[in-house]
Amino acid sequence: MKSVKEISIESKILKRLEKNANCLKLVNYLFADEELQEMQEYANNVSIKRLGFNDHGPVHMRQVVGNAIKMLNLLQDAGVKTSLEEEEIGTFEDSMCAVILAGIMHDLGMMIGRQGHEDMSAILAQPIIDRALMHVFPEDLHKRVIIKSLATEAIIGHMSSRKIHSIEAGIILIADGCDMTKGRARIPLSINKTPRVGDIHKYSANAINRIGIHHGTRKPIQIDIEMSGDVGFFQIEEVLLTKIDVSPAKKYVELYAGVEGQERKCYL
Fold this sequence. Notes:
single chain; 12 helices; four-stranded mixed sheet; alpha+beta; Hypothetical protein af1432; 2 domains; GMP Synthetase, Chain A, domain 3; 59% helix; 4 strands; 9% strand
């Protein structure tokens, strides 16, 4: 059964896609896919209970989809073309479909383990990508091929360990890095009391109060982060910034962060 948080995020995603018929058809299919839901929940079990990491399950993957949709829309509002549009091989909606698929399945590989999970995610996602695209584009082989290829690039590139080249994959990279608020660390902190290597990621994420994604004043996308303590800077500088730095979408992003009540620091 889906959690209240999952349902809430799904509702927001559906609202953002009201004008994109194919994207709406795609997310409705994915949200109703029972196998995908089971895979996401088991990935989270392995991540939190077995490995002691943060949330890598259905809530996180939906949050990444929501972040990516918001960012892609901000680029469109600013007149920035996606890679598919720039190359005149696909539409903005095709690009949106690719980031939706990547976002909702980028951490499935956590079912196996942390090491190389991005490659495992791509492998595990292929059958679901195939059937989802056949559902939305049953008579358009061209769209199925380009969207699947782009989604796969975004999945294997979300850890910044592999060079990516498309705006769409770059957006997933940043959207993933932006899901680092205290809610993501709440469960691991409550059930794992013994100190262990890597705890700084949980404690730094727990210091992140809010992440806003808005129209920028200098660039199309502004990311604004509010923290409760300085430890949150670790999450920004060691996780988010490393992803933005290697993202093909970096030039479209401005980044601000600071402790609540203090002046924000401008990173980009």
